[in-house]
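[09:14] KT: can someone run the structure on this one? pasting the chain below
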Amino acid sequence: DVQLVESGGGSVQTGGSLTLSCTTSGYTYGLCMGWFRQAPGKGREEVASIDSGGTSKYDDSVKGRFAISKDNAKNTLYLQMNSLKPEDTAMYYCAARACGFSAFRYWGQGTQVTVS
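[09:31] RB: done, structure tokens below
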């Protein structure tokens, strides 16, 4: 099984930066990883993803401001968030799936990001 634990959320002013981390444990070989967010009263949306080869994708709303990366030696996924806006306020979740499947099966508990 795979366990995911996020950290790094917090409160920041508009224009500020935060880096989220997601530490993984369990069988993580060949996983595709992603960051999702859910704001109050809204559905969950995929923010960024990275495959097992390191290719990343971003939602248009964060392109040029967010960067997803992973450190395989540390079993950690990151989301560097720059130029934060109030509309980035949400609970952020780390997720993982086997790259051969479309659905994310494993989820962390979430970390809150508030931009004011």
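[09:33] KT: thanks! The chain has no helices and eleven strands.
[09:34] RB: yep, looked fine to me
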